[in-house]
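Provenance

Sequences were taken from public entries as deposited. Structures were produced by running a predictor on each sequence independently, with no templates supplied. The record for Iron ABC transporter permease from Pseudidiomarina terrestris is shown for reference.
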Amino acid sequence: MLSKWRQISLVASALVLGLPLFVIVAALLALPFGGDFTTLSHLWDTVIPEYVRHSLLLMLGVAVGVITLGVGTAWLTTSCRFPGQRILSWALLLPLAMPAYITAYTYTGMLDYSGLVQTSLRDAFGWGYGDYWFPQIRSLGGAIVVLSLVLFPYVYLITRATFLQQSATTLEAGRSLGLSPWQCFWRIALPLARPAIVTGATLALMETLADYGTVQYFGVTTFTTGIFRTWYGLGDLTGALQLAGLLLAAVIALILIERWSRKQARYDQRNPRPAVPFQLRGSKAWLASAACWLPLLLGFILPALQLTSWSIERWQVWTDADFWQLAWNSFALAFTAALLVVTVALWLAYGRRQLPTKLVRTSVAFAGLGYAIPGLVIAVGLLVLLSGADQMIIAASESLFGWDPGLLLSGTLFALLFAYTVRFLSVALQTVQAGLAEIRPSMDEAARIHGYRPFQVLRAIHLPLLRPSVLTAIILVGVDVLKELPATLVLRPFDFNTLAVRAYEMAGDERLADAGPPALMMVMVGLIPVILLSRAMLKSQQHALKEQDFVPVTA
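Predicted structure for Iron ABC transporter permease:
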């Protein structure tokens, strides 16, 4: 009986977390059955074709960019040895610490008409306005470049892991048949890594669809900017819900593509003996080094230097009490959200371990889908849900007590924390489940034999062993919350700002230098999970090298 109630509670928890998505889906499915599609029909005749065109072009450009940069750098750092290779193998993850909208601000500050580059050109050659042509950074092409530079580590990380695990026997067979290293890569290694490449590219494209700060700042009309415009410009929440439903459908299509690609992973051959890297010499070595340093330079080093320059220029901000109050708001919100999300993840992951029925497994998997859904979509669905609940509470309070309690759910920190839980639960859930997988089930059985109840087993045995996983999950979720922009913009309480919102507001007012300190603070905090991930990669690589006789092959 007790296990039945636990199963019901686990399923109910997952359903509650999915309520914002149900609202979006219901708004979209209601259209064929008499739903109000006046605004959607108008948008379909006017701007939706533009949203679709820009979104598709953006996705196509980003896909080409992240695959080119991610696969190229992954192959070079895995299969070749050249100057700086050991540093680059982990440093190429650093762009993950730089939010895309922050990178957009920095490149606008460097490349715009009043930026350092164009100003230097005019001073050097005596040019005036209209005397020269310079590519426009605030454009669809600029958005593609910025998002590619920030998101290529998704492809790099997953593809590099696949290259490290590929069979040396297969590649050596290709060499024995007369294939050059390039031909081995193109005809053997690349086809075997195709599922990993598709998975990494799909993750990058989901982030592209979810992006708001970059495309809005560059003036590119996509579904995310359209949702904001419909909601705040036209004042039509129903139309915004319907647009969010279309965006949700696109994200689900990408998820299905990613799942299909993983089914093909069985064609990937692995061997206990990893492939032996090639030692590059002369110009080949320096070209390989330059090819890997360039995306790191453009994706992290130059934006970080620009943020540092702005922060030094606005050094007074660092002594301003309001700035540190803003930082405290951000960190306190991130820490509270991280604790809440990890607690929910522990509840669901441990419940799945104790009751591994098909219903529980499906429910927990459903609860973890939020990370693939744009924060703006979750925020729109949640606001409709909570505002409806607030109206019911107000109506009941007025009828029973003659008192209007005001908004208790929507427009409060509760709404923000709810949205963060839905959005980032998957990050904590996967981390906690990975930690639980390393604990043998026999330990649970031994504890139960000694009379321990499930909660006592979790507290006395699992939590001490899960301490590294729980700490990692708290850090990862906290950093993600700190950088989240769309959901925070929509759901934050009145007169409550975070570092992300302040940077966005300053950039929107063309005060880019003032956006430097809050942006730099976010980037410095964002380096924490990247450093943890880099350390894990280095340990894995060193372990692999110890298990093989490392004899470099000269190419």
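Residues 46 and 491 are 28 Å apart (CA to CA).
Residues 512-546 form the longest helix (35 residues).
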